[in-house]
């Protein structure tokens, strides 16, 4: 452990919402562990940026769709910091726009493995370190869902929407399960946000195209989601668990 500052682990932290969360958390005194799967250069640039401002950051590679890699990541976190105070389950994928009748088993299995099973296993490992019954001091888990969870993703990505619906239900149950262990569990549910994820789904222009259907008239920015995550992680939300915070422009 390098000092007494709280430690936040952010999965999928090298870009988009994860990177914005890392920057904000570091500015508020967290030591930030930035998980990435393949974007090593982006993660290391982010670490250098944060450290240049006198804060503490560390990049750690792990595929959130592989249990052994998750376990190795948490073991490395133990060796590096010796504590964990906040887990942000942010890593996730979206696939190409597709109707359900054209989806392969492999696509759906990959979606659920990364977007659902991965956060489950990350939460499992975080609980072992934070729960009072395991000798921890409590903490917070913030799961990143999506407005698609309640809108359904019809004609685009019902599989993605279903995976995020699973995260919402998982979070509600986990919040009740962990309340007596000093761990709060909450959800941030972004709407359409300007991130690279839309390009990976074949819709790089989605933020602009969606603006007219959003009551506030625009897509959101990653910093707006990061602000919600940091609030739920903070002592200001000490009486908040099992909540879903919609940050979606009113959809």
TrEMBL record:
Keywords: Oxidoreductase
Region (Disordered), start-end ranges: 196-217
GO molecular function: oxidoreductase activity
Keyword Oxidoreductase: yes
Presence of the UniProt keyword Oxidoreductase in the record: yes
SUPFAM superfamilies, per database record: NAD(P)-binding Rossmann-fold domains
InterPro entries: NAD(P)-bd_dom_sf, Sc_DH/Rdtase_CS, SDR_fam
UniProt family annotation: Belongs to the short-chain dehydrogenases/reductases (SDR) family.
Annotated PANTHER family: OXIDOREDUCTASE, SHORT-CHAIN DEHYDROGENASE/REDUCTASE FAMILY (AFU_ORTHOLOGUE AFUA_5G02870), SHORT-CHAIN DEHYDROGENASE_REDUCTASE FAMILY PROTEIN
Name of the protein described by the UniProt record: NAD(P)-dependent oxidoreductase
Phylogenetic placement of the source organism: Bacteria, Pseudomonadati, Pseudomonadota, Gammaproteobacteria, Oceanospirillales
């Amino acid at each position: 452990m390098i000092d007494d500052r709280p430690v936040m682990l952010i999965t999928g932290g090298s870009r988009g919402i994860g990177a914005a969360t890392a920057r904000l958390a570091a500015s508020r005194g967290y030591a930030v562990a930035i998980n990435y799967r393949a974007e090593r250069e982006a993660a290391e640039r982010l670490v250098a940026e944060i450290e240049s401002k006198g804060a503490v950051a560390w990049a750690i590679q792990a595929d959130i769709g592989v249990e052994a890699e998750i376990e190795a990541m948490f073991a490395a976190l133990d060796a590096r910091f010796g504590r964990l105070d906040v887990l942000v389950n942010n890593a996730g994928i979206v696939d190409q726009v597709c109707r359900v009748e054209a989806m392969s088993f492999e696509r759906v299995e990959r979606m659920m493995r990364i977007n659902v099973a991965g956060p489950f296993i990350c939460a499992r490992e975080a609980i072992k370190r934070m729960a009072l019954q395991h000798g921890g001091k409590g903490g917070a888990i913030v799961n990143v869902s999506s407005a698609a969870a309640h809108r359904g993703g019809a004609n685009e990505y019902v599989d993605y929407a279903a995976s995020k619906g699973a995260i919402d239900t998982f979070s509600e149950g986990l919040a009740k399960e962990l309340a007596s262990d000093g761990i709060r569990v909450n959800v941030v549910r972004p709407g359409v946000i300007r991130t690279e994820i839309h390009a990976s789904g074949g819709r790089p222009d989605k933020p602009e195209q969606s603006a007219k259907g959003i009551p506030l008239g625009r897509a959101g920015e990653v910093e707006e989601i990061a602000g919600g995550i940091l609030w739920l992680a903070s002592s200001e939300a000490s009486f908040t668990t099992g909540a879903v915070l919609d940050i979606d422009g009113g959809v």
